[in-house]
Write the structure tokens for this entry.
Amino acid sequence: MGDQIETAAEAAEAHAMPRVHEVHTDPDAKNAQDQKLPKGVSGKPVEQKSPAQWAYERTVLYLKKFEEGLDDGHEIAMGFAGTDAGVLKIEGMGYFDPDIVTFYGADPAGSKMQLVQHVSQLSVVFRALPKAVETAEPNRIGFKLLADLEKGDA
């Protein structure tokens, strides 16, 4: 703790900025608090965001971070707790203000799936699934979603 003096504007900005804290057993793990937030996340105070937008933005950040740890033979998917719906390979994500988040994708057999969920029920389990054999490169939806947040239009 230092005795750093802040201006009123700096104090207000720090209050409005989202905060995150993580600790990992792996000393080489990158913590979320050490990564720069995209313009679409940091450009608007949290108080001005709908619960859906705020849940969407944070989920995108976690999704991309998870994908950064995958090898070229795997793609991100999500599992469902408490249901026999199985696993959804994430191919898209969005939100509908004020309180709905949705995931688009396919099950491991290739059947189309979509999860529409209220933010109060949001519980996402990311999983690594082997990528489809016919594709040369793994699909990295997290990187596409983050690029959209970087534009700041969300």
Summary: The mean pLDDT is 81. DSSP finds four helices and five strands in the chain. Residues 88 and 109 are 10 Å apart (CA to CA). The beta strands are 74-79, 87-96, 100-106, 112-118, 125-130.
